[in-house]
Every structure is written in C-alpha cells, then in structure tokens.
Amino acid sequence: MIVRDMLYIDGGWVKPDGSGTIEVLHSATEEALGSVPSGSAADAERAVEAAARAFDGWAGTSVDERSKYLTRIQEGLQERMADIANVIAAEVGMPIHLANLIQAGLPMVDIGSMPQVLDGFPFEERVGNSLVVREPVGVVAAITPWNYPLHQVAAKVGPALAAGCTVVLKPASEAPMSAFILAEIIDEVGLPPGVFNLVSGPGRVVGEVLASHPQVDMISFTGSTEAGRRIGELASRTVKRVALELGGKSANILLEDADLSRAVPGGLNACLLNSGQTCSALTRMIVPRSRLDEVEALAVSAVTEFVVGDPFADGTRIGPLVSKAQQERVRSYIVKGVEEGATLIAGGPEQPEGLERGYYVKPTIFSRVTNGMTIAQEEIFGPVLSIIPVDSEEEAIAVANDSIYGLAGGVSSADPEHAKAVARRLRTGQVEINGGSFNPMAPFGGYKQSGNGRELGRFGLEEFLEVKAMQM
Ligand code: NDP
C-alpha cells in the first residue's frame, strides 16, 4: 500500500486541511493500491498563494538557472523510472514494458528537452522602434488526466517552469501516484519554495477553485471535453489564459494504393495502445470499399497478436482499463455499436476469458460502420476500432472531417506526396503519414472541440509566455 498523507505546498510536505482521502485502485486486481489526500478548497487556496508569492523571484531567474533545475529534475526522473513505470502500470493498466518506455520515458523527454528549447530561444526581438520581450504568463494551474498521468503533468510543468511560471498541479484522482514522485524529485532538487505545488483532490473542488482563482493567470487542462468546457466557463470570469487538450475521434485514411499489410496492423496498434485510453488514438479506420474484405481479414488476424492480460505478465500487449466506470462505459459503447447495426468482427462486451478480475475489455473491431453511428462520433476511450468503408478519396476526407473533434489523424498511401496532400486537408493538429512515429518535440494539440493551444517542444514553451512591446 502506498499511503500519501501530505500535500506539497510552498517548498514542503504539509498536512492537508481536512482528513479525507482518495483511494487509488489497482486496475488488474481491483484492490486498493494506496491513497492520497482529498485536498480541499482551502488547500488549493494555500497553494495558489504560495505560487503567487514565489512568482517574482522565479520569473527573475536566468534561463541558465532554470535549465540547470530542469536538467536535475530530468535526472531525478531517470533514477525513479522503475517506480514510476510500476505505479502507472498498476493504476492505468499499461503493460509494464510499454509503461517503462512511454509512461516513465516520455516525461523525461518532456522535461529534459526544455533546456535545449530554451537555448537560443528568442526572448527578445526588435520590431521597428519596439523592443518585444517574452515574459512568463504568471501562476499556472495544471489539471491533468489519468491515461498518461506523468507525461501530461510533465508536458505542462516542464515548459511552465522553463518559461519562469510558478505552478499548482492537480493530478487525476484515478492515477495520482506518479505526481507525488515528481514532487519528491522537485523537493530533492531544491526548487525555491512555492515554485511547484501539488494538491490532489476532486476536480469539482480543487480543480474548480484553481480554474476560478483570480491569482491564477493561466489554466492548462487535459481531459474530457465536458470538463474542459466547465473549466473554460469558470476561467472566463477572470479572463485567464486557457489551454485545453481534450478528446478526439481521429480518422486513419487508408488510400486505394496503401500497403494494407502494414497499414492495417499499424493502424490497429495506433487505436489499441494503452487499451485505447489515448486521446490521439486512431479510432476510425477509413478504407476503400473495394478493399474492405482484405482490410477485415488483416484486422482480424492482427488483433490475435494483442494478448490481453495482467500488465505485469510477460507477453501481455493489452492490460485492463483504469477503472470500473471506464470499463462499463466502454462496454456500453460496444453494445450500442451492435444495436446500431455495425458488424462486430472481433471482441465484444464480455469479460475476456480467464480474467475474472480486473477492468478488462476485449480488443474489439467493428466493420461496416457508418459515420453517423454513435461509435463513430463519440470518444470511447477503450480498445474499440471502427472500420468505415467509403467510395472515393473525397468521401474519405469528408468522413474524416465530419467530427466535432480535430486532434489527430493518419493517411497511408504508396505515394507519400499524395498522402501529404490528403493530410493537409484534414482539420486536425497532428497527422501520421504512413505510420510516422510520435515526435515529442512536435506541437501537440487540437482543432475544433479537441481544444486550443499546443504542448511539447518550442510550441509548448510559447504557451506559457506573454508578449510585451516597449517603444523606444
Ligand atoms: P475528466 O476530464 O473528468 O478528468 C480530467 C481531470 O480534470 C482530472 O484531474 C479531474 O479531476 C479534473 N476535473 C474533472 N472535472 C473538473 C471540473 N469541473 N473542474 C476542474 N477539474 C475537473 O476525465 P474522466 O476521468 O472523467 O474521463 C472521462 C472521459 O474523458 C474518458 O472516458 C475520455 O473519453 C475522456 N478523457 C480524455 C482524455 C484526453 O486526454 N483527451 C484524458 C482523460 C479522459 P478528478 O480526477 O478528481 O475527477
């Protein structure tokens, strides 16, 4: 049992205002993994005040000084990699070998890349008779989800600290443990008091205080579109800057000349990674109707490779989902898909055989889906792929763009130039061409209701900066 009974505020571990706790469950055993404090409105206030007091000092540090701190935080993350991967594999259900690589590996890049981004960043430039300077936006509140819990924290905390902002972090209640490890690392590194603060607690209490607080200058949120809307409304009352990284229903277009033997298994993987609990998952595979039989056969064959099981067992490719609520939600979408007339070609709503406990869902593939169906429109956040046949490239693009979301996408073709031309027509923030791999330095974020703002690399740093013009 991992019992955390303190919050990290103003440079030290402090007792929370109340005595409430949030129980964190193991996704594979359904047993208690530990608990964290259920912080209160007063705890959130205390953290914001500490961050506000620390702002002037931290904003006044040199780029070199901030780079040194960030490098030391990255080194701390490296030392704690195994702890981080283990706890996230248990909380979220990602198989341990992938959790090591992604859940523990990516945060190191998110933070470790910042000194490189800062090096030579144009904080000042001349525009005619003006000196234009970029300054930190102020106190940042970061509210993060559970699916890539430390990556999403690091993608906010890294650039915010690099910019010279101070931070209050509220991690997701389902997967808060790695944020406490980060706070321990930051404490060891000796960041000045108040520069980083951690308050766990319910989104509706701690999150809403942060989103409304007049001393918070910016709110950076990743999570559901519904919570994003609420945060945007609350933040608008004090005209804060709001960065939102929300849901997706991303389309993967396989063009007529695509190499299906690569594109179908690759596309399936881009849907099923982390049991489909990925905002940029490619959940709609749009394929030429003339090649539908081939696509179906390849998908059914590829899905057998996705062995479902304990995230800590050798050979597991898909672990459980994060929670009972999430498992039930995903299963209800599968039932809905069948009811609405999609053809179930793999998986289904039942518990996978041999796994009595754990929030498992079978990797599930629907074919002959039409884009108006619920499973083609709503974010399921589970291991469910919808194959949508179309009759032309124009129709493929129209279907891909027929979504309230615009986070990611994919295009496969034997001709990369042709794929690029199609990619330019997708209204999304990211597009993989022929399975191009995730780039942690490239801007990440959405069009339409997938949010606003960009994270990671130079674009991620720019989110946390204000611009001032001084006329000479
Ligand atoms: P939420 O959006 O509710 O949670 C994300 C974060 O926001 C958590 O820290 C949460 O706190 C906090 N939060 C929730 N409500 C508020 C509020 N009113 N004010 C301030 N903060 C708030 O996601 P869920 O965990 O409920 O997941 C539901 C669905 O959201 C998923 O099925 C999926 O479709 C989508 N989702 C999308 C993600 C993405 O990356 N695009 C990530 C996670 C979920 P707390 O944990 O305490 O509730």
- Radius of gyration over alpha carbons? 22 Å
CATH 2nd-level architecture of the largest domain: 3-Layer(aba) Sandwich
Quickly give the structural class.
Answer: alpha/beta
Shape descriptor: globular
**Main sheet record:** 7 strands, mixed
Hetero ligands: NADPH dihydro-nicotinamide-adenine-dinucleotide phosphate
Quick one: CATH superfamily of the largest domain?
Aldehyde Dehydrogenase, Chain A, domain 1
**Which band does the percent of strand residues land in?**
15-25%
What is the CATH top level name of the largest domain?
Alpha Beta
Q: Which quaternary structure do these chains form?
A: single chain
Q: What's the arrangement of strands in the largest beta sheet?
A: 15-16-17-14-13-19-20
Total strand count, please? 23
Number of separate structural domains: 2
Structure description:
The chain has 472 residues and is α/β, with parallel strands linked by helices. The chain has two domains: 2-246 and 450-471, Aldehyde Dehydrogenase, Chain A, domain 1 (3-Layer(aba) Sandwich), CATH 3.40.605; 251-439, Aldehyde Dehydrogenase, Chain A, domain 2 (3-Layer(aba) Sandwich). 40% of the residues lie in helices and 21% in strands. The chain is built from 16 helices and 23 strands. The protein has helices at 41-59, 63-79, 81-92, 96-112, 114-118, 149-163, 177-189, 203-212, 225-236, 260-272, 292-303, 324-339, 374-377, 393-401, 416-424, 457-462; strands at residues 2-3, 7-9, 12-14, 21-25, 32-37, 124-127, 130-136, 139-143, 166-170, 196-198, 218-222, 241-245, 250-254, 282-288, 343-346, 364-367, 384-390, 405-406, 409-412, 432-433, 447-448, 451-452, 465-471. The strands form six sheets. It has a seven-stranded mixed beta sheet, sandwiched between helices. It has a six-stranded mixed beta sheet with strand order 10-9-8-11-12-22, with helices on both faces. Helix 1 crosses helix 8, helix 2 (63-79) packs antiparallel against helix 4 and helix 3 crosses helix 4. It is globular and about 65 Å long. The chain starts with a strand and ends with a strand. The mean pLDDT is 98. Residues 143-147, 170, 172-173, 202-204, 207-208, 211, 222-224, 227, 230-231, 246-247, 279, 326, 329, 379, 381 line the site of NADPH dihydro-nicotinamide-adenine-dinucleotide phosphate (NDP).
